[in-house]
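W.,

You were right to be curious about this one. When I first looked at the sequence I had no strong expectations either way, so I just let the prediction run and decided to look at it fresh. Below is the sequence, 324 residues in total, followed by the output.
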Amino acid sequence: MAVSILALILSSCQKRLTDDVTTSEEVKAASYTSTHGCKPMVFGVVVKQPDGVSYWRTLMQKWYGSDGKVAYLKANIGTDRSNYEIFEVKLDWGEVTYHNNNQVYLRDVLRNMQLMRVTLMPDGKPAASYFTSEGDRFPDMIDTSYYYYNGDMLESIISISNIATASGSTFVFRKYSFFYDMHGNLIRAETGSGPGSYKMHIKYDYSKPVTDMMVPHFLNFPYQLLDYMDLFHFPVHHQITSVVFGEYQPGLPYPDETYPIARWMYTNYMLEPNGLVRSYMDVADVFEKTFYTGWQCSPMMSAPANREKTTIGSVADFEQLYPR
């Protein structure tokens, strides 16, 4: 049964914000961008059903302009992490434009609507994002998020959302705080430290370093779009073994006292010669999933001036465009 984290957002408004607690094994510091000079051009998944039938889903594909910035974006983002059949954000053809040295616009070309606007700080870090999602199958959502740093390091995000349903609108105010290990890996994101707050715990195999990787788990839709637009990225320095998103219930017999709502278990990693993760599997449920990332190091490929561009529609397409 697919778990809708969007439904959790609706049911968890007006949670009390509490002070962050940092243990001796955690630090609130990590780079917000990657430093290896390579870009993820394609991120997709092959889902194998219990009956053996497999299919490909493109989660992200992007094309760069002559200035080296993202010009076009295809993105499918959803809270159905079991079989990737349903996406709340489905962007078949997005156009990214840059204005006044501090504004980035993402437009859904086919629907002729602005999906997101991002305000940048003078050093290029996101200061704020303004996200609008409208659709027939899901509640309309408007989110304004503000990004706070400790020096160059992301410390927290304040998210203010308005979710519209047939019965009315629900406003959600939420603070995300981020905690990292000594290597700069994100190990926990949370909405607070009290009972009933939501936490995402990320575990690593520290004996297996990697240069970086793309991941399917995320906090919210604006964050994932920032990553896809090259405006924000949590770097990964070791192979991730498991991720658990859930509700903090101190005293209950669950790992990290967090009742699991969504779970990912990553294994079978394949790396490129430079250490970037090419593929890995998620074996957390009966739908076996293999994620693929197609990387390109500079120079970035230029985008065409129209929609005539090579899209990935299968793992065979991926292997042809990104051979081993």
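Here's what jumped out at me. Residues 1-24, 27-33 have pLDDT under 50 and may be disordered. And, maybe more interesting for your project: Residues 5-11+24-321 form a domain with the Porin fold (CATH 2.40.160.190).

Coffee later to discuss?

I.
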